[in-house]
Amino acid sequence: ETGVTQSPTHLIKTRGQQVTLRCSSQSGHNTVSWYQQALGQGPQFIFQYYREEENGRGNFPPRFSGLQFPNYSSELNVNALELDDSALYLCASSLETNRDNEQFFGPGTRLTVL
Amino acid sequence: AQKVTQAQTEISVVEKEDVTLDCVYETRDTTYYLFWYKQPPSGELVFLIRRNSFDEQNEISGRYSWNFQKSTSSFNFTITASQVVDSAVYFCALSEAWGAQKLVFGQGTRLTINP
Fold first, then answer.
1. Rounded CA gap, B42 and B36, in Å?
2. Given A33, A42, A99, which is nearest B91 (Cβ)?
3. Confidence band of A97 (pLDDT split at 50, 70, 90)
4. pLDDT tier at B41 (50, 70, 90 boundaries)?
5. How buried is A32 (Cβ within 10 angstroms: 0-12 exposed, 13-18 middle, 19+ buried)?
6. Nearest C-alpha of chain A: how many angstroms from B108?
7. How far apart are the C-alpha atoms of B37 and B109, rounded to whole Å?
8. Cis amide bond preceding B41, omega within 30
């Protein structure tokens, strides 16, 4: 276990709805990254938060937004859900953004959009 | 743009065989990092190894070994004497050295070890 937790484990939504996914980082980690993993694909970087500020974003539309709280936990919000948003959403935490610091991944939230 | 290619979608071998997972990458950066992750059915990505672009030494860790060759932009992973517990999806990933700690993943190789 990495100490990174995500909730909920599974979620079913319908097209057009909004969803919030949560991630608790490993103790002491101030950096959280979110990834989307479609079935049979590798994870794709959505964005990263470092000390409560967005620190980089992948090729995702603005309806994907996030927050990082003072305790460094994080939320991923997705508005106007589309069928293609069905995926496993992974978060990863690390201490600082230094590449020598390992990113620890959580077990993911599996989102199904009907 | 950065890109990682894992040409082998699925590999199936019998227990105790050696198996090599291929990874080819593209980047314009001169400084970068390469990674291998394992994803068991539970979904959690498990970190296996990190290499920076200045360190081309091969590495061995128990039954695992990695062969990094900048000349061919490859970072291959070999499991010696495979075991059923090695069954998982394996991902190779690339990260630039600066900015966000963004990992660019390949599509993964599903490895099945049969008893």
1. 17
2. A42
3. low
4. confident
5. buried
6. 6
7. 11
8. no
